[in-house]
Amino acid sequence: MSAPAAPAPAAPPAAPPVQPVKRHHWIVRLTHWLTFVLLVGMITSGLQIYTAYARFGERGEPSYVNAFEGQRFPAWSKLGGWLAGGLNWHFTLMWPLIFGGLLYLSYLVASGEWRSLLFRPRDIKGAIEMQKYYLRLRKEHPAQGKHNPLQKLAYTFIIFLGMLSVLTGFAIYKPTQFSWLTALFGGFQAARYWHFWAVWLFTAFLIVHVILVFVVDPSSLRAMITGWYRGRFPSHD
Amino acid sequence: MIDRRAFLRLAAAAGPASLVSACGWDGGNTVRPLLLDVSRVNDWVGEKILYSQRRLAPLYDVSQRSQQLPMYFISPEMPMLRDPKSWRLQVAGLVRQPLTLSLDDLQAMPRTTYTVKHHCVEGWSAIATWHGVPFSAIAERCGMSPQARYVRFDSFDSGYFNGWDLASAMHPQTILAYGLNDNPLPVSHGAPLRLYAPTKLGYKMTKYLVSVTFTADRPGGYWEDQGYPWFGGV
Question: Residue B74's CB: how many other CB atoms inside 10 A?
Fold first, then answer.
């Protein structure tokens, strides 16, 4: 807090004026919302595609462990109407999703902002303190920069999950042309399996992410839209 | 604390997405043509950038063959020839010498055998051994014209057909198969002759073949004309 010293000692301490800080570059805001909309489209068209063969494993071989084996997903969760429709949505939305992701990563590197986002070994201690705070084992919120260590961990994870989704996607899309990549993931069926797992990790992230925004720091939503942050954690690094 | 404008903008972003996913929408008459345009771009990317005629599909050992290999055809009943002996393959179009080939003629030509993984557009895969004549040997024998850019494969399965780009057809692993797993090709898998290539999705591999036509214009396909990706390469 960088509140100026109160000039008149008689007055009760007023709430320090909130200085808005510029938090998110337009590229970050644009790619954030673009990714959100595209990801919804990718997941829903992906569920439509999954419905055509709702299991994992070579023909004639046992299935992989999968809670959604044979699952009929409800109509509202599927995009495309039938397999070809799902494929065409999926193979259309994948391009802006990939290019948006590359734009975002380029921005992180070029601006140096990756430093305040990437979770590194030195963040482990801070992550434990942060977890203690959430578990009410410590009272005061640990000091933090733009993101706290748990946020760094979550955002670093989601970037790697995005990369994994794209790579497993290509391994499924062209398993012969990219046979080395498909082999890296354990084969065509295994690549499908990891690609499908990514859906549920993205979904879980999305739910926790939105809950934390509203419970912990609602001003961060406005910051992701306007770029300006007026909340509790204005420090910048 | 929560900004109303922020909510409105969030709703503006999420609205179309949830609307679109509301009813299994294939894009309707407005968006569907755009999706098909992108699908054509993807065909181009698939053929010109991601595909290489020199890149071979991985081979498997015969011990890795799948226990199951699903069959499928579009006719209400399994397409069968009344008189298999009189069956001939017609090779025509942009060629110097149109051909009429019997199964014996085909089996007397160079023979390719490989054990490869089959990829279905639905998401299943299975390993099997295929035996047949390389398509490039047919192209050579009929004297394919330099104007030929595509190949159309027709069947006796209720008019099922496929159009192929020439590069994929001339791939060393593209064959006209008359054998499966050391046996003659079963009727359930397209007897007497079917197209096979481990570089394509299953629906691109025409079964129950009757003719091969070299063309300058791009032929469609049974599923391709209904919206499935035309290139269908894997």
Answer: 13
